[in-house]
Specification:
Distance between the termini of chain A: 72 Å
Structural class of chain A: mainly alpha
Number of strands of chain A: 0
Shape of chain A: elongated
Pfam family, one (chains A, B): TetR_N
Largest interface: A-B, 42 and 42 residues
Number of helices of chain A: 9
Oligomer: homodimer
Largest sheet of chain A: none
Keywords (chains A, B): DNA-binding, Transcription, Transcription regulation
Protein name (chains A, B): TetR/AcrR family transcriptional regulator
Strand content of chain A: under 5%
DNA sequence: CTGATTGCCTAATACCTTTAGGAAACTCCA
DNA sequence: TGGAGTTTCCTAAAGGTATTAGGCAATCAG
């Protein structure tokens, strides 16, 4: 009955790797147990249940993403910062598709509030300091960027842009140009 | 052994309703069988398997969405058309959250090519005729709008905007203003 | 009315999830 | 160093979902 040395951390890390290999949807307690060559029930001492496992993988991904974002943002401002952050999201999704999917998992409000998601929001606001936006426009812009990054990465990962021209690379740089331009020339509300 | 009158269409329609009630992830062959008060195996004459069922629900949602879009776009142009289409997506997601999630399901390329997804792309291009965009910028813009709608609806449905001010309604109208302004003043590529 | 077809059923297999309780492997202190 | 206590992993078991094979009854065509 040799002990393998399971810990929640090791399980979550292995679960994240599994997600990148076979897709987040295929991450299952059973598959994880197989990976450690251990019986399924053994995992339940370290992880509450399947949902808990998946949530923890999501939290890990959000942390990693926030760390990369913080590093990328250091010393940058304006469009430089915008592009750096955007590329962090996109590159992470390409390197770690399973984790990236996990990061988009819906979290219940308390979990979300305690997650690295709040760092993400802070970083986005930091980027927007390079543009001239008062509240509530700054919040609108945060939501715009969040929606766009989320959506673009989802669609690209799902293959939405892969079988048509121009290639996704070009669209990406041009859309960052466009968002930068929009943030610099944020429009006043239209007449109601 | 009374016959219930199952057909693929009825199953898919009931599956869509089930998705709206309990979430697309909870749509399962078993749950659907329960809903018809029929044994699980009976569904397999009408639907290939679970994945097939879910795919068909996604296709139904894409159709419905395209129909609504076509109706909303009739007789509109420019920002009017943009806002109409955008609201179709958002309203549909609020009325039919399960279907809307289904519509964002990843489809394999052949299925996607045969789906109403192509109508969506055509409609988006039709909207962009109200703006002055040449290729490849038009394609970039299609992808921008697709990403934004997809992302915003996901985040809003996931409760991302619900516990903070300003409320999502205001952000939505302001972001449509912003996208309209961006499309009218599409920037030239930045210096490489 | 009868023969063919179709529709739903029983039965069986194979996963995955989760809980309860047991035994071996560590830990740590006397 | 030698237990006592805790921790870690295991066996066992129950319940849910997915899927296939094969059967009988309801329906339909002629």
């Amino acid at each position: 009955m040799a002990r393998v040395g399971l810990t929640p951390e090791r399980l979550v890390r292995a679960g994240a790797e599994l997600a990148d290999e076979v897709g987040f949807d295929e991450v299952t307690v059973s598959a994880l147990a197989r990976r450690f060559d251990v019986k399924v029930a053994s995992l339940y001492s370290h992880v509450r249940n399947s949902h808990d496992l998946r949530t923890r993988i999501a939290l890990l991904a959000l942390e990693e993403l926030a760390d990369r974002g913080a590093a990328a943002l250091a010393g940058r401002a304006g469009k430089d910062a915008l592009a750096a952050m955007a590329n962090v999201y996109r590159d992470y999704a390409r390197e770690h598709p399973g984790r990236a999917t996990a990061a988009r998992m819906r979290l219940d409000p308390e979990t979300a509030a305690a997650s690295a998601g709040v760092r993400h929001a802070r970083m986005t606001r930091a980027i927007l300091r390079g543009y001239d936006l008062e509240e509530p426009d700054q919040t609108h812009a945060v939501r715009l960027l969040g929606s766009f990054f989320h959506g673009y990465v989802s669609l690209e990962l799902g293959g939405g842009f892969s079988h048509s021209l121009p290639d996704s690379e070009e669209t990406w740089t041009r859309l960052l140009d466009a968002l930068d331009a929009l943030l610099r020339n944020w429009p006043a509300p239209s007449a109601p």
